[in-house]
């Protein structure tokens, strides 16, 4: 696995997106409403460090579930 741990940790930029993809039931409505989808998508499409294909697909699923 290669992914930046700072993106997926609890306070990371893509933490809510990862939670939406993997543990959708734990997200609250307030968390979903405060998420900035456009920033999440730009981080997934142009990451600072390479993401694995499986992780990018999972994160895109999370974005779709939030939207």
From TrEMBL:
It is found in: Nucleus. Residues 1-67 form the Rad21/Rec8-like protein N-terminal domain. PANTHER family: FI11703P, SCC1 / RAD21 FAMILY MEMBER. Coiled coil: none annotated. It comes from the Eukaryota. Keywords: Nucleus. Pfam families: Rad21_Rec8_N. InterPro entries: Rad21/Rec8-like, Rad21_Rec8_N. Its main location: nucleus. GO terms for cellular component: mitotic cohesin complex; nucleus. The lineage of its organism: Eukaryota, Fungi, Dikarya, Ascomycota, Pezizomycotina. GO terms for biological process: mitotic sister chromatid cohesion; replication-born double-strand break repair via sister chromatid exchange. This is Rad21/Rec8-like protein N-terminal domain-containing protein. GO terms for molecular function: chromatin binding.
């Amino acid at each position: 696995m290669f992914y930046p741990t700072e993106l997926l940790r609890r306070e990371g930029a893509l933490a809510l997106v990862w939670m939406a993809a993997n543990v959708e039931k734990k997200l609250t409505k307030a968390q979903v409403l405060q998420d900035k989808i456009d920033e999440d998508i730009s981080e997934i499409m142009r990451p600072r460090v390479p993401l694995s294909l499986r992780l990018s697909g999972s994160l895109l699923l999370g974005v779709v579930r939030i939207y």
